């Protein structure tokens, strides 16, 4: 083989494939030529010295490519002579398959469905629901905690131990949740996960079988719907009104439901607190029906009026499984969440975490544990809660002063977002479009419904609100509502 021929092969391969290192380009060019029969068995390749000169690269790069060819059995290399194309026998003809040749299964169609395709006014922008304000993240405090964690000897936790979570974090969280949310919790009842979504997927898989029924708030959190549908559950609507989720208003099939999902402290997306009588009726139903209540304490750390309404789990730790995370208090991308369940169930869920490969990062666990133990996390929660309360007032006041009675919007009791109720779907569409044109990534309320939702409007985050943004958003909303 002549150096010019090698140069031609490499140039042709580079023009028809993804860019890569020179080693990869040489390897791919020669591999494809050998497989296609353009280089016959017994043919000499170019010496590494001449090939390097022809290609303008180092000999090491050429030799590395030749070693890859030898590893695939395509060439033989003997000391003191150029590589020789190996006799590999006839190869089957390669016919390129269409890009969509690998089809999803029925389960895969559910798993890969984009449930948020028509939900947001734009892909990114201000006021996006569920997104905390990144500048409030305690960077220096977290960095110091991570540096300490990185120098800590972990023992078996550095390998494949502690799938329920590091004992230190489980102890710290159990104490924190007992003190701040009133939970019935012990270190043995806490399981650390990679977030609320991971927790819901684990619980749906562990506590139900495909075909079982599950009740989910309507309108409700799309992540819970995804977790339950991925587990093969049939979903039933659990209606929500101004007193929260109402088990008595659910369909008659509720009697056979296995799971029920609620966000009682700060209902998502409407921001309503579930009244105590509703909680007690739901617990009574669960005990009578043999069901399990999954309580997602969504934004539970941001209650601006103390513990007027605590968590539901303390009322019935025998049938309520609690889910929480650090997504909003710190950052979603940290991927730290937790489940609080009766200890026998928690022990089994630890195996589920291992089997699902859903264990949280060990250094992040240590860092969070130290923040809780030092009281730093509690101080951080108070600081960001004050900031979010002020921003909620700014946005609520701007909308009320600009639109008056043309919309329904109330100052939420906590959380990161508020619901702006509009009269119909036409007004919702117009408002969503106007918000997107203004650079705001808000969501349509009707998109959170299981079926045809009677609730229309926008779900708007105030996490990054200031007076300028709030005024601009209110003006956009007024323009849209005034036209419909």
UniProtKB/TrEMBL annotation:
UniProt cross-references to Gene3D superfamilies, sorted A to Z: Type I PLP-dependent aspartate aminotransferase-like (Major domain), Winged helix-like DNA-binding domain superfamily/Winged helix DNA-binding domain
Ranges in coiled-coil conformation: none
Annotated ranges, domain HTH gntR-type: 20-88
The entry's keywords: DNA-binding, Pyridoxal phosphate, Transcription, Transcription regulation
Entries under Pfam families matching the protein: Aminotran_1_2, GntR
MF (Gene Ontology): DNA binding; DNA-binding transcription factor activity; pyridoxal phosphate binding
Domain of life (superkingdom): Bacteria
Entries under SUPFAM superfamilies matching the protein: PLP-dependent transferases, Winged helix' DNA-binding domain
Stated family: In the C-terminal section; belongs to the class-I pyridoxal-phosphate-dependent aminotransferase family.
Name listed for the protein in its UniProt record: Transcriptional regulator
Organism from which the protein derives: Salinarimonas ramus
């Amino acid at each position: 083989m002549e150096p010019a021929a090698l140069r031609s092969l490499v140039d042709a391969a580079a023009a028809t494939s993804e860019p890569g290192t020179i080693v990869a380009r040489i390897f791919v060019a020669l591999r494809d030529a050998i497989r296609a029969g353009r280089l016959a068995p017994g043919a000499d390749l170019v010496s590494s010295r001449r090939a390097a000169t022809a290609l303008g690269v180092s000999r090491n790069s050429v030799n590395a490519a030749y070693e890859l060819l030898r590893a695939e059995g395509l060439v033989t290399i003997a000391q003191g002579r150029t590589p020789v194309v190996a006799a590999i026998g006839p190869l089957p003809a390669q016919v390129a398959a269409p890009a969509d040749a690998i089809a999803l299964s029925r389960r895969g169609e559910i798993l890969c469905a984009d449930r948020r395709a028509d939900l947001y006014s734009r892909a990114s922008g201000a006021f996006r629901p569920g997104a905390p304000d990144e500048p409030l993240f305690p960077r220096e405090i977290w960095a110091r905690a991570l540096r300490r964690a990185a120098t800590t000897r972990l023992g078996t936790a550095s390998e494949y131990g502690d799938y329920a979570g590091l004992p230190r974090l489980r102890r710290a969280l159990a104490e924190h949740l007992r003190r701040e949310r009133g939970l019935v919790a012990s270190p043995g009842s806490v399981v650390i996960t990679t977030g609320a979504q991971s927790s819901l997927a684990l619980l749906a898989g562990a506590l139900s079988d495909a075909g079982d029924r599950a009740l989910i708030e309507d309108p409700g959190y799309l992540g819970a719907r995804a977790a339950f549908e991925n587990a093969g559950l049939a979903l039933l609507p659990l209606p929500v009104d101004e007193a929260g989720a109402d088990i008595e208003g659910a369909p008659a099939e509720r009697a056979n439901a296995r799971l029920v999902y609620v966000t009682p402290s700060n209902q998502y997306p409407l921001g309503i607190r579930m009244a105590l009588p509703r909680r007690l009726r739901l617990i009574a139903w669960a005990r009578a029906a043999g069901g399990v209540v999954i309580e997602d304490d969504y934004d539970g750390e941001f209650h601006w009026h103390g513990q007027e309404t605590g968590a539901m789990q303390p009322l019935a730790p025998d049938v309520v499984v609690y889910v929480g995370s650090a997504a909003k208090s710190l950052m979603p991308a940290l991927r730290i969440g937790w489940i609080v369940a009766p200890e026998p169930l928690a022990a089994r869920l630890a195996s589920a975490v291992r089997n699902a490969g859903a264990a949280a990062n060990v250094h992040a666990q240590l860092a969070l544990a130290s923040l809780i133990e030092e009281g730093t996390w509690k101080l951080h929660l108070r600081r960001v809660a004050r900031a979010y309360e002020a921003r909620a007032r700014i946005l609520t006041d701007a909308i009320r002063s600009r639109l008056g009675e043309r919309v329904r919007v109330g100052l939420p009791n906590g959380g990161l977002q508020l619901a702006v109720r509009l009269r119909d779907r036409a007004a919702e569409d117009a408002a969503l479009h106007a918000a997107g044109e203004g650079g705001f990534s808000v969501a349509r309320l009707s998109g959170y419904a299981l079926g045809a939702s009677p609730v229309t409007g926008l779900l708007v985050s105030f996490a990054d609100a200031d007076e300028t943004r709030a005024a601009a958003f209110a003006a956009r909303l007024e323009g849209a509502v005034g036209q419909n």
